[in-house]
Amino acid sequence: MVSDNKINIWVVLRTILLCFIVFVTLYPFIHMVAVSFSGKMAVMSGEVTFYPKDFTLDVMEHVFGDKRIWVAYKNTIIYVVVGTAIALVFTTCGAYALSKRERCPFYKVVNILLIITMFFSGGMIPAYLAMTWLHLDNTIWAIVLPPAVSAWNVILMRSFFLNFPVEIEESGKIDGLNDIGILWYLVLPTSSAILATIGLFVAVSHWNSFFNPMIYLKDADKQPLQIILRQIILQASSTDQDVVLGTAAENISENGIKYATIIVSILPIILVYPFLQKYFVKGVMIGSVKG
Amino acid sequence: MKKTSTASAAAVQSSAPLPLKKKSFAKRFYQGRYLFILLVPTIVCLLLFYYLPMYGIIVAFKNYKPFVGIIESDWVGLTHFKTFFSNPLATRTIWNTILLSVYSILWGFPAPIIFALILNEVQNLKFKKFVQTVSYMPHFYSTVIVVSLFTLFLSPATEGPLYKIMLLFGMREGKDLVGDPAAFRTIYIVSEIWQGLGWGAIVYLAALTNIDPQLYEAATIDGASKFQRLLYITLPSLSTTIMTMLLLRLGNLMSVGFDRAYLFQTTTNTATSEIISTYVYKIGLQGSSVAGLSYGTAIGLFNSVINVLFLILANTISKKLTETSLW
Fold first, then answer.
1. What is the distance in angstroms between the Cα of B146 and the nearest Cα belonging to chain A?
2. A2 lies in a domain?
3. Tens of pLDDT, residues B221-259
4. For the domain that residue A118 is a member of, what is the CATH number?
5. Is residue A46 in some structural domain?
6. What's the number of domains chain A is made of?
7. Cα end-to-end span (Å), chain A
8. B255-290 pLDDT, tens per residue?
9. In chain B, which residues have their Cβ closer than 8 Å to the Cβ of A270?
10. Is the Cα torsion angle A57, A60, A62, A65 positive or negative in sign?
């Protein structure tokens, strides 16, 4: 490209802007880590910005000593694993059936039923009532089953299956495979990319889910991480609390506990993110091109 | 080439020479029985978790009592809707919902497009990749985390970094911005943009890479300036993507995220933060009383219907103006 004379100012400006965006995105995380490892006095006086001051592990010890967090962690992991597994199986089966437009019984009806759900829903209270009618409220099934079939994911996966070469499926049929056999032996082995993409989306949304657990789960020992995190953040700052929590005497700031809990809850996502982000991005691309 | 392959596929599928349409339903069903088995979980999930709630909407026209059951509860017609519209709170929640949504689209919709356009100009691929990777990350934070972050960062009690920056500029001495009704929408939208900027740009970046570079070369030779190239090549090439995204966004005009609004809500900022969905939650589900179930459902239904109307309206306008349509 031919370069204009003005280009240099423009390059400088946009580089500054992009660096600013990067900073604004990363800084909260850096700050949280810094506060989580800082002593109480340093945090209270607002000295901590980029790195920990009078370094201490007390806050982390306190957070990891909190039984609520462990129970919530366990619950979240169960919901993520079970929820993602169910969603992948249901979505794959449904999407494959719907990719066979001419032969799939009830194709038209199911397709229309599916598309309507993208634009209209019963709403918050009817959804809750339905759950009570099914006697699924306050159970794990209220968390893992409703998101298992989502129109977006089914359509995303179907558009992937539509690209599968017909010739290979026909050769499977000649070898005596039925549709389920073809899906299992021929289609699935080449579908790891789409499975990873949709699996990751579902897993992250389960990990971050707040609304469904809030309305469907009543028992304290079933609550996932996001709910507990919210409780800890909202905890009033009072000296009574300090006595109850046993933090008064230790080198622990209230902010430290809150930030450390946040860190503990996003750590898994931060850790897997760099390795998996290409799958996420791929998913959006497929969705945007075909959807 | 393509035609012959589909023809042979059809020949393989149907042993009889009759065209597919004339086969009996039973035979077609038998031939597709394995596909039907695969479809069963989808059908069951759709019926139980999407269509059973839709059936539950009739609660809006009844005085639903859980122990009596949906069938036996008394019909009350449009009473709940009338109650809602005669309540001065109703106008406020509807207005809050619309304003929050409109502002959110006004600021939040162009932001990723501008970001994508700027990022697309960057020649240094490593820097570009780095900025992209970093910018996607907040998308994966939960709403609880993002809201907590903003709350803590703005809090005077904990000397949050954002609070200190505001002090530097001489604003808001000792005041907590999160509890301020005048600041609610700004905080909501800023947090939304902070979280979604990079992720929202992916679609546009993909569309930008599809533009033929020859177009730019030709335009440059013809003496088009940078701005002219943007105006006459880049933006027209993005128009379909932009319209589609805008349509989807407009279709959800009345369904602003419950989570974010609910989590940012405090007892002091409800004047602007009470939107329809948070109101429905409070009326119907938060208390232990069952009286609000029907009333809340009615309000929710009103919300959904307006939503669908907006989507249809937006789609019709778009079809006329740009020939982009969702269906």
1. 10
2. no
3. 888 888 888 888 899 888 888 988 888 787 777 777 789
4. 1.10.3720.10
5. no
6. 1
7. 34
8. 777 899 999 998 888 899 999 999 999 988 887 677
9. 137
10. negative
